[in-house]
Design goal:
Length: 284
């Protein structure tokens, strides 16, 4: 697999600021002044026009990356302080095949190896540009600003206040209880079922998100850089040759399913355990 090697609960705000949508990453939304979803309370889950559920992720601060003594840690995970200044919605699960087809009208996974077909299985064999196009079309259909999450947003949402290697704790021996992993390696629970499984079959994290560890690796909006970028609402590296993916997949080692694990993948490539989930700006 042509992966670039890595070299790379939350403090809730007392209130959430009203603001307009700031700058949108090029090519990820349909309009310059997109509509945004109204939020009445933390912990809200909304359902959109294609039946996709999105959970409200509150604003807050956290430490992104991993400590030097974390088993499986990579050199590109040096810790940085990050503030997520605005709440946002994030897909409760990965985008499913049914959701993808309802928006795009295609089935890129059909006839491919390592795929279990079904409307509630993850949409895979999706390039980064394809994922961005899905967000654009869904935005046009609903008049809202869907996009890929940033790498910082993804890890913040995955951790859901945790500081351990996984959002359920620090011991990889528990991973099979919380995710699908290790199909071709490391003796994981997909050893005899080498494909991405139905979404939301394992317990959710504290934010109500499923499959953040394993099942499919997930595209983020950022360019991959060898060092994490901290600060307020970081957008990642300024440029690069690959895009970040997070979360590990059904074929990943346990260490590659950690909250902090990150790698870069060329935007034009695709795979049977690579998918994505979407983000939607929120205000209160």
């Amino acid at each position: 697999m042509p992966i670039l090697p890595g070299s790379l609960w939350c403090v809730l705000g007392a209130s959430m600021l009203l603001s307009a949508w700031a700058s949108i990453s090029s090519g990820q939304v349909a309009s310059e002044k997109p509509a945004i979803a109204d939020v009445s309370k933390s912990g809200e889950v909304i359902t959109n026009s294609i039946g996709m559920k999105l959970a409200l992720i509150p604003s807050g601060s956290f430490t992104m990356g991993s400590p030097a003594d974390e088993p499986g840690r990579m050199k590109d995970e040096s810790q940085v302080a990050v503030t997520i200044s605005q709440p946002f919605f994030l897909g409760v699960t990965e985008v499913t095949q049914g959701q993808w087809t309802s928006v795009m009208g295609t089935t890129p996974w059909k006839g491919r190896v390592g795929v279990q077909q079904g409307p509630k299985n993850p949409a895979t064999y999706v390039r980064w540009d394809d994922a961005v196009e899905f967000c654009k079309k869904l935005s046009e259909n609903e008049g809202k600003a869907y996009r890929l999450p940033t790498e910082a947003e993804w890890e913040y949402a995955c951790r859901a206040g945790s500081t351990t290697a996984y959002n359920f704790g620090g011991d990889a021996i528990q991973l099979s209880e919380f995710g699908w992993w290790g199909g071709f390696r490391d003796g994981g629970n997909t050893k005899t079922e080498k494909y991405a499984h139905l979404v939301a079959q394992k317990p959710a994290n504290r934010f109500g998100l499923y499959d953040m560890h394993g099942n499919v690796m997930e595209w983020c909006s950022d360019w991959y850089g060898k060092e994490l970028v901290g600060g307020r609402d970081p957008q990642g590296a300024d440029s690069g040759s690959a895009r970040v993916y997070r979360g590990g997949g059904c074929d990943s080692y346990a260490a590659d399913c950690r909250s902090a694990f990150r790698l870069g993948y060329w935007r034009y490539l695709l795979n049977y355990d690579l998918g994505f989930r979407v983000s939607l700006q929120a205000v209160r």
